[in-house]
Amino acid sequence: MALLKLDSVTKVYRLGNVEVAALAGVSISIEAGEMVSIMGPSGSGKSTLMNLLGCLDVPTSGSYMLDGEQVGSLTDDRLAAIRNGKVGFVFQSYNLLPRLTAEANVTLPLLYGGRRRGARSRAREALNAVGLSERAGHHPPELSGGEQQRVGIARALVTEAPLVLADEPTGNLDSNASTEIIAMLQRLNRERGVTIVIITHEPGIAEFTGRVLTLRDGLLVSDEHQPTKDARS
Question: Taking the model in full, what pTM does it have?
Fold first, then answer.
């Protein structure tokens, strides 16, 4: 079953009197439990597509279905609820609040969603899933880059969202930490069945996913399935 499905999606931005088509008719279907990478050069539409997939924006035309719900026709409040409940985000720059502990950072999506009951224990469980239970009380500046990104992954998991969007998740990490993060995403995909979509410009990262979508000039120019390289090997 398709967790997300785009049909002839366009996104047009107006800059003064000029219209710029960031996406020019993209159709994609991603099944629940897939691990997919989206690649393309600068200006290809990767970031725009990620914003649409994460319900941060809506298409200008075309259809986007997420978990059976038509996204383009929803109110801002409903879009916010979907972002909080159905999509987990992992960012290149981690986006952690430095004055909060790792545990407190992970609880934030639950608090924003009004789910205060049990938030602390669920945050601990998410941190344990990424191997950071012993660092729960540490603040981001006290953690390495790889550890901060693992906190970011725990934050994406804590709501039990079916979709995780990872935007250049290894962009600020060295090669060893990058491999650890990709291996962790692979494990979570295998063990929990979480659908993971990675936005990346690095072919070396894309080879760890079973499918590679390539954008160019706002169009999907390639959709390739491939044997998945195991990051643990």
Answer: 0.94
